[in-house]
Amino acid sequence: MKKLFTLVFVSILFIQCASIKKHNSHLNDLISAKDLKSDVDFTYKKLQQLHPDLYEYITKKELDSKFDSLKTTIRKPMTSLAFYKKLSPVVAAIRQGHTFVYAPTKLMSKKVTKAITKKGTGPFSQFNFDFINDKLYVVKNKSNNKTIKPGTEVVSVNEVKPINLIEEYNTFYSSDGYNTTLKKRYSGKRFSSYFTIENGLKDSLNYVFKINDSLKKITILRHQEDTTSNSLKKNKLKKTAFNHAKRKVIRKKKRVNGYNKTENIFNRNLRFIEKDSSIAILKINSFKLGDFRTFYKESFNKIDRYKSKTLILDLRDNGGGRLNEIVNLYTYLADSSFVFIDESEVVSKSSLLKGAYFSEGTFVEKIIKTIYSPLLYGYLFLTVHKGQNGKNYYATQTRLHKINKAAFKGKIYVLINGGSFSASSIISSNLKGSKRATFVGQETGGGYNGTVAGFMPKIKLPKSDIKIRIGLMLFAPHYKTDQHGHGIFPDQEIIPTLQNKIEEIDVELNWVLEDIKKQKTKHN
């Protein structure tokens, strides 16, 4: 039996390596105009079959015209990347943030990825960038070259001007609706990804920086950290029983709070300020990772025990995550029983089965799925029903929920920005609509009235091998707004300046703390 498992594992590994090699070898192949037009038709057909809110922000006539026009521009063979650049803006025109085309990129095996990681930190990862007023700036320098101060403008990278690449790639994806803050927030962070799509991974980059009104060329190499001191620290930690207990606590915290290895940060954090712990700050980077039920239970019991009067919920740059998590969190924030979302609209019963169930997986996985498909279809047959308007609906989290016994009863502030998307926008919609919280920051990148997400299969186009992700379920919060196509607007808009970011001054949080003081003075 052991030999059989080994054989299966080796076979799967061989197939994966062969698949990666085949994919990479065809990236620069020219695909015929006929095949590309076929993929255009395939894309639109899949969107119509699977996306339940396709014409919310664009009419059918307009979208039909865009797809027809796209085909007329395809007159000669092109690479998958060139085709991606033509197809993506058309898909982005539906203005649904969860639905987009993936750029064709070189795949890497685990072995290659490990080898690159071992070589050290890449020349992009040594900086944090932000894109402000059409210019790319360094806001944090983690490289060995300390002449590059935070606030330094990046004029070019390998002779590529940031604004040209950012403006081009910003047409390839969308926020929900007509929002603009999402792209403003993401542009600087995504510049390195855009560059890598065009040029591949690099061990060195030739930057041109603007330093003291002069242009300076600086080459940044992949940097390998000195691991000797880290190894010595780890060896010292192993020697005492106290450190053993400490490591156990850290492991539990990573499991409960969730831990992002890439950024070396905990996903959820609770802290208190003021001597009397009257202000609690709950920072949630995403609604993914970790044991959220244990975290929220322990956190709100602690808030109750400390008798905190104000809660600041920080959802800035929270790109979303699990629906059941935000429902659980809301039971601690709501002041009365609530319905969290409406029934989720879907195209049909078969759209969930074909789109989410059969779209992905290996040949063997699809065989197994086929065997169990009658059970799933039976479940969908019972749960997906047709409404009075003739549309199909899937009921999830639509029942009346009771608030938790440890629900917070004090004042709530919510910090938001363009990076607040998907699930973080849905919970914000209900907090805003129920007038439970005061919002500070910038308009969310996710829509107030809902988003199309849930199951989001990656569907491969037959001829070009490009993949498109399509949301299958329309999640609409219980509370709505008449302002069509926008996110949650803050009650107090605050936009951090470049200098604020350089000096790491949290102007949104500072405004909240000042407002708390003012409110306290009024009541005294």
TrEMBL record:
Highest taxon of source: Bacteria
Gene Ontology annotations for the cellular component aspect, listed alphabetically: outer membrane-bounded periplasmic space
BP-aspect Gene Ontology terms: proteolysis; signal transduction
Stretches that traverse the bilayer: none
Record SUPFAM superfamilies: ClpP/crotonase
Tail specific protease domain boundaries: 308-495
Entries under Pfam families matching the protein: Peptidase_S41
Molecular-function annotations in GO: endopeptidase activity; serine-type peptidase activity
InterPro entries: ClpP/crotonase-like_dom_sf, Tail-specific_protease
PANTHER family: CARBOXYL-TERMINAL-PROCESSING PEPTIDASE 3, CHLOROPLASTIC, TAIL-SPECIFIC PROTEASE
Identification of the protein by name: S41 family peptidase
Species the sequence originates in: Flavobacterium sp. WC2409
Lineage of the species this protein comes from: Bacteria, Pseudomonadati, Bacteroidota, Flavobacteriia, Flavobacteriales
